[in-house]
Design goal:
Blueprint (H helix, E strand, L loop, with lengths): L8 H4 L5 H5 L1 H27 L4 H10 L17 H21 L7 H14 L1 H11 L1
Pfam family, one: DUF7970
């Protein structure tokens, strides 16, 4: 047994033996999994029925994708006050994301937003110094 809750997905449809139905631990995942599969199937059918209406838009979105792959990311901690993070997240959610939607970008990645913020900071180092001095 592993900690991965999805390890038994392949064996659920294959194992319909009476010994599994007598095992109460085996019954719980079996009853939960078909519900999950049904919800997934329903989501896929909704997605597939909505896709033909947006073929041209989806083709453009699929070809664009994120500006860079996750493998190019170098994670570093950024230390900021809670109120600063809140302001940043609000600005992203209220201004940045809607602007991206207007431009037809619906699949922005957090790494792209963080990369843009760091590039902006690198372009304005004097402004960074001003902000630090004004806080002191």
């Amino acid at each position: 047994m592993t900690d991965n809750p999805f390890d038994d997905l392949g064996t659920v449809s294959d194992d319909d033996s009476p010994s599994d139905s007598n095992d109460s631990a085996g019954e719980t995942p079996t009853t939960d999994e078909p519900t999950t599969a049904s919800a997934t199937d329903a989501d896929e059918s909704v997605t597939s029925s909505a896709e033909p209406e947006r073929d041209a838009t989806d083709a453009a979105d699929e070809s664009s994708g994120p500006a860079f792959e996750y493998s190019e990311v170098r994670q570093r901690p950024l230390y900021a006050r809670g109120e600063t993070w809140d302001e940043f997240e609000d600005a992203v959610g209220i201004t940045v994301v809607p602007e991206l939607r207007k431009a037809g970008i619906r699949d922005e990645e957090k790494r792209e937003i963080h990369d843009a913020v760091l590039r902006l900071a690198a372009q304005e180092p004097d402004r960074i110094a001003e902000l630090i001095k004004s806080e002191r």
